[in-house]
Amino acid sequence: LITALAGGIGAARFLTGLTQIVEADDLSVIVNTGDDIELFGLHISPDIDIITYTLAGIVDEEKGWGVRDDTFCCLKMLREFGEDTWFGLGDRDLATHLYRTERLKQGATLLQITDEVCSVLGLKSKILPMSNDRFETRIITQDGSVHFEEYFVKRRCEDDVLGVEFVGASSAEPAPGVIDAILNAELVVVCPSNPIVSIGTILSVAGVRDALKRTDARVVGVSPIVAGAPLKGPADKMLRGLGFEVSAYGVTKLYLDFLDAMVIDDRDAALKGRIEQLGLSVTVTNTVMKSLLDKISLAKIVLHS
Amino acid sequence: LITALAGGIGAARFLTGLTQIVEADDLSVIVNTGDDIELFGLHISPDIDIITYTLAGIVDEEKGWGVRDDTFCCLKMLREFGEDTWFGLGDRDLATHLYRTERLKQGATLLQITDEVCSVLGLKSKILPMSNDRFETRIITQDGSVHFEEYFVKRRCEDDVLGVEFVGASSAEPAPGVIDAILNAELVVVCPSNPIVSIGTILSVAGVRDALKRTDARVVGVSPIVAGAPLKGPADKMLRGLGFEVSAYGVTKLYLDFLDAMVIDDRDAALKGRIEQLGLSVTVTNTVMKSLLDKISLAKIVLHS
Question: In whole angstroms, what separates CA A139 from the centre of its chain?
């Protein structure tokens, strides 16, 4: 049994490789819901959708999100109505948001709805929202606090990160199955996702960090930082803004209390000794996943780290 | 100044002709909102959309509703999620519903939102929802009371009509401008729409019927019943179910207290004398609008009736 902690695109790439070499139904993925946002009255769960669409084989691989070959007729028309359409909403993708929003109104939990969507899309792996409760990641900028997706998509990560807020973190309970997935796993993988707003959110949910410490599973992290910068997204600005070192070493320190092993990129080979001194085993390999072979190769290395 | 009372497709056809021969900004259309329905959390106003899309020149003329060349990707995906997708929702059309729903949540009225949509679509005529208040037409069938759209679309008008309910009618106020549009007009046209669930709803809103009686405007009706049956829709079953005669004569009697003139179809020429005996002037002409010329020709006759 393997459990992964995942954000969006980076995690999705890694999991694409992993699912090629393990049984899909041996895999549980605990997904960040801090990016969840309400737009046009719809409850959107960006990371759950990215992971779900990816594992279902219907993701738009070029974008990394949304449904392949989706159209954007509705969004274009909303733009004509003067709506601020900074968030990409494809027509097929909209169905997921409409369905989720309607089911939430009917009293279903995010986990139940995710199960339903996965079942329709034929997914055999288990997708676990980190929490069914409201949890909102906000970024404090010079213009004040903005929703993470607003910072990320609308403002293109251009603001300096003065702080990060997890609204709801103090009361958010882990979704049913999250703690068990960590405790019952043989391997827990911390995917190469943003350590603050993708993994950090999951870690802040009550009991998750403790379960990671207590589990008998081997806990392996994959550094999202390569040669001092993330492959995608604003992890560097965030780490720097919050006073952390922007490196595989800096990331390892954030996970130190529960990590058994770390996988870092060839370009960071020089950090191996420093990280090992923290008391973990370190594997150095190519972590930049361009082709499916890169993804599978990285997954194999993580499995044996 | 011309004011029309309108339901959906029949009225839209007639108004297409009328707008060819009168100045668009001389025309106000009071539209039935009894068909409004919430589906997938979206507030849908079927008749307002049909009239708006038609006058904006973007209606799907073959269907009579929706946006021309619209795609249905979202609806297809909703169907995969197991949703009951009996109501047609195109991708572009969805934008209207999302926009309306969001603006309603923000506190805007149906009239304000309709103004905004019309402005975006470049409409110069005034579209007036009959009321900003909740008003729901329900059909009493042997299986109980169902929403009009459910009866009309999902159940394909197959039930016998045991009764019609106007939920909210006793408290629905006319939208601002509705009464003035009737009182200030020189001509009021009752479009060839269902006399019970399209025009009857409008007439049941407080003050509308009284304004039609008081106005100095000439009030002209166009019969939606031709040769004992409606061209479209369930008006015959409804009239019969409620005990009215299914004919231009039966329709005229429903409007008798405010009507000055009635336009009936050639095929009902035999009814002319009987209707005239009710005290109105009657024009007999072709009311079946197949081509744009048919529409313009009927509009001209109504203008001079």
Answer: 17
Which tokens in the block code for residue B50? 């049909």
Q: What is the pLDDT of residues B97-120, one digit of tens each?
A: 999 999 999 999 999 999 999 999
Q: What is the pairing mode between strands A163-167 and A136-141?
A: antiparallel
Nearest to B234 by CA among B142, B127, B150: B150
pLDDT value, residue A201: 97
User: Which residue type does A216 have?
Assistant: D
Q: Where are the alpha helices (DSSP H) in chain A?
A: 9-21, 46-55, 73-80, 91-105, 110-120, 148-149, 178-183, 199-204, 208-214, 235-241, 248-255, 272-276, 292-303
In B, what residues contact A, Cβ < 8 A? Answer: 40-42, 67, 70-71, 73-78, 80-83, 90-92, 94-96, 98-99, 101-102, 105, 116-117, 120
**B94–A80 CB contact, under 8 Å:** no
**Structure confidence at residue A229 as a pLDDT band (50, 70, 90):** confident
Q: What interface predicted TM-score (ipTM) does this complex get? A: 0.87
C-alpha neighbours within 13 Å on the C-beta side of residue B53: 27
Instruction: Please list the ranges in chain B whose pLDDT falls under 50.
Output: none
